[in-house]
C-alpha cells in the first residue's frame, strides 16, 4: 500500500513538472472544455458568408496558405501595418488576399463567448476547413491549439509565385516539410477561385520573347483570355482558374491542365513536368482520391511551425498584437 502511494505521488509530481508546452500540443477538440461552442461559431459564420459569396472558399484557402508559408500558421498575415512596421498583409503577394473582415467577425463572436481563449491562427484554420467542406471538398478533422505569432513583417514574405517552375515550387514546399504529392494536391485548390490578368498575361503574346503565345496553352483559351484581359482599359480583370466547375472543390483542375487549359504558368507546368505529370493524371481520373489527399495535405499544411503551449499569445484583436502586460 505504501509503495502504491509513493508511486502515485511520483507520477503526480512528474505530471506537474511537465513544461506547459507539453501540456498544450495540437489536438482535435482542443477547445472542448475551454470553449465548447468554438467550432460551431466558426462554422455558422463561414456558412453565412458562403451563402452570400461562394468565392469565400478560395479566399480563405489563399489566406491560410499565405499565412502558413511565412513563419508557420500563426495568423501573422492578419496583423495591420503601423507607422513603425509594414506587416505581411502589405507585401505585394498578399495585396489581393481578402476576407479579413470575416475573421474579425468570428473573433468578435468568440471573444464574447469565450474571452481570450481561441487563437486567430485556429480561426483561420477552422474557417478554411469549413469553407472547403461547403464547396464540396471532403470534411476533415482539424487539430487545434495554435497560438498567435508576435512578429509580422512584409520583408519576410517570400512565396512561390505563378511563374515559378515546378522545381522552384517544390523547393519552397520541401523547405516547409511538404512533399511533391502535397504540392500537387494543394495546387489543386486552384480548382476554385480567380486570378488577375497581370499574373498570366505574359503567356498570351510574345511568351519568353517568342513573338507568340505560350504553346502549352490551348489556342481557344488564349483567344478567350485575350478578350477578358483587354476588355476594360487600364484595369486588371480576373478570370476563373478552372473554366468548368469554377466554384466546386473537385478534381476538374487536373482535367483542365491535362487539356492545356491551365491559366497560370505553374498550373500548366504541373501537367508537363516529368516529376508531377503522373500525379496530375492520377488525380484527374479519381475525384475521391483527390478529395482524400487534399484533406490530408490541408491538415499537414496547418501544422507548419505552429506555436503551442506558452509560445506566442492569444490575440484579443486579430489585427493587433496584445499590449505588453504591466
UniProtKB/TrEMBL annotation:
Signal peptide limits: 1-24
Named cofactor requirement(s): Ca(2+); heme b
One GO term describing the cellular component: extracellular region
Binding site for Ca(2+) 2: 191, 242, 245, 250
Positions of the record's site feature: Transition state stabilizer: 62
Keyword set, alphabetical order: Calcium, Disulfide bond, Heme, Hydrogen peroxide, Iron, Metal-binding, Oxidoreductase, Peroxidase, Secreted, Signal
GO-annotated biological processes: hydrogen peroxide catabolic process; response to oxidative stress; response to stress
UniProt binding sites for heme b: 190
GO molecular function: heme binding; lactoperoxidase activity; metal ion binding; peroxidase activity
Catalyses which reaction(s): 2 a phenolic donor + H2O2 = 2 a phenolic radical donor + 2 H2O
PANTHER family assigned: PEROXIDASE (PTHR31517:SF59), PTHR31517
The protein's name: Peroxidase
Native source organism of the sequence: Spinacia oleracea (Spinach)
Amino acid at each position: 500500500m505504501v509503495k502504491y502511494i509513493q508511486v502515485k505521488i511520483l507520477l503526480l509530481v512528474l505530471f506537474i513538472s511537465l513544461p506547459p508546452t507539453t501540456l498544450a500540443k495540437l489536438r482535435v477538440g482542443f477547445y472542448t472544455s475551454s470553449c465548447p461552442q468554438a467550432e460551431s461559431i466558426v462554422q455558422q459564420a463561414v456558412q453565412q458568408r458562403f451563402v452570400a459569396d461562394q468565392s469565400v472558399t478560395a479566399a480563405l484557402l489563399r489566406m491560410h496558405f499565405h499565412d502558413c508559408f511565412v513563419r508557420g500558421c500563426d495568423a501573422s498575415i492578419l496583423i495591420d501595418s503601423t507607422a513603425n512596421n509594414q506587416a505581411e498583409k502589405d507585401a505585394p503577394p498578399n495585396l489581393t488576399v481578402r476576407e479579413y473582415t470575416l475573421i474579425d467577425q468570428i473573433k468578435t463572436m468568440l471573444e464574447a463567448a469565450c474571452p481570450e481563449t481561441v487563437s486567430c491562427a485556429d480561426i483561420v484554420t477552422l474557417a478554411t476547413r469549413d469553407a472547403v467542406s461547403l464547396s464540396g471538398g471532403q470534411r476533415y478533422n482539424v487539430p487545434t491549439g495554435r497560438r498567435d505569432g508576435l512578429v509580422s513583417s512584409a520583408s519576410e514574405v517570400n512565396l512561390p509565385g505563378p511563374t515559378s517552375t515546378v522545381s522552384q515550387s517544390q523547393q519552397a514546399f520541401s523547405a516547409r516539410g511538404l512533399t511533391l504529392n502535397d504540392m500537387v494536391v494543394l495546387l489543386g485548390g486552384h480548382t476554385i477561385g480567380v486570378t488577375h490578368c497581370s499574373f498570366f498575361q505574359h503567356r498570351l503574346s510574345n511568351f519568353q520573347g517568342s513573338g507568340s503565345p505560350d504553346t502549352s496553352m490551348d489556342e481557344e483559351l488564349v483567344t478567350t483570355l485575350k478578350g477578358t484581359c483587354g476588355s476594360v482599359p487600364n484595369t486588371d480583370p480576373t478570370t476563373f482558374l478552372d473554366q468548368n466547375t469554377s466554384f466546386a472543390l473537385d478534381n476538374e483542375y487536373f482535367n483542365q491542365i491535362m487539356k492545356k487549359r491551365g491559366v497560370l504558368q505553374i498550373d500548366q507546368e504541373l501537367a508537363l513536368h516529368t516529376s508531377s505529370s503522373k500525379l496530375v493524371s492520377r488525380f484527374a481520373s479519381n475525384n475521391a482520391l483527390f478529395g482524400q489527399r487534399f484533406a490530408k495535405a490541408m491538415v499537414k499544411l496547418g501544422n507548419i511551425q505552429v506555436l503551442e503551449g506558452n509560445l506566442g499569445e492569444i490575440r484579443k484583436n486579430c489585427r493587433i498584437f496584445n499590449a505588453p502586460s504591466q
